[in-house]
């Protein structure tokens, strides 16, 4: 293999996260502590290229069949996190997202929306096992959000203001417990 091919392969692997088009590989379940999350080298990219875009007209569903459109959450800021049970960075983020949702219950709705192909069959037991107190196991059975966001990367997290306008998106894993997160949310939560 040529040096250029090796460099290209290494670069591709370095910038990729969990892609949503591959079949769900068998991965060991990751447990996240604050120290592990900070040491994991989350390298998500903050993207503001879609700032001001309307929240997509997409319906999400809970395992019990309850459905809501994203627009139903307007009125306070909404953080939509696309994730999957088989995605290592996604799993590491979940406890931090649960804690973040608990910090701002009146100002921020945190929606973790699974892109798992097996839906409630895998997501509901996973959520039950983890015992999250501030998150619900939302599903996107048709992967409409994944197609709408068009990043082809999990996790992808998008912040909307109270009027349903996109503020920014984080493409890839992020430490949601750090000072950077507080700074990224400050203006939107102050509205």
UniProtKB/TrEMBL annotation:
Any Gene Ontology biological process: cytochrome complex assembly
Transmembrane segment boundaries: none
Cell compartment(s), UniProt: Cell envelope
Principal location listed in the UniProt entry: other
Keywords for this protein: Cytochrome c-type biogenesis, Disulfide bond, Redox-active center, Signal
Entry keyword annotation includes Signal: yes
Signal peptide span: 1-17
Ranges for region Disordered: 21-41
Xref: Gene3D superfamilies: Glutaredoxin (3.40.30.10)
Residue ranges of domain Thioredoxin in the record: 49-191
Gene Ontology molecular functions: disulfide oxidoreductase activity
GO cellular component, one term: cell envelope
Xref: Pfam families: Redoxin
Protein name: Thiol:disulfide interchange protein
Species of provenance: Croceicoccus naphthovorans
């Amino acid at each position: 293999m040529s040096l250029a091919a090796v460099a290209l392969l290494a670069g591709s692997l370095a910038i990729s996260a969990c892609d949503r088009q591959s079949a769900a590989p068998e991965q060991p379940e990751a447990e996240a502590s604050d120290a592990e999350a900070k040491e994991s080298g989350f390298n998500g990219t903050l993207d503001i290229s879609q700032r001001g875009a309307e929240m997509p007209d997409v319906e999400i569903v809970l395992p019990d069949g309850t459905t809501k459109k994203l627009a139903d959450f307007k009125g306070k800021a909404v953080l939509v996190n696309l994730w999957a049970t088989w995605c290592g960075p996604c799993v590491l983020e979940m406890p931090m997202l649960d804690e973040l949702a608990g910090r701002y219950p009146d100002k921020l709705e945190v929606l973790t929306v699974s892109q798992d192909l097996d839906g409630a069959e895998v997501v509901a037991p996973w959520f039950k096992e983890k015992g999250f107190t501030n998150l619900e196991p939302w599903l996107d059975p048709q992967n409409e959000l994944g197609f709408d966001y068009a990043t082809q990367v999990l996790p992808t997290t998008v912040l909307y203001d109270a009027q349903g306008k996109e503020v920014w998106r984080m493409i890839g894993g992020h430490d949601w417990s750090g000072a950077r997160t507080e700074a990224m949310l400050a203006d939107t939560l102050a509205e």
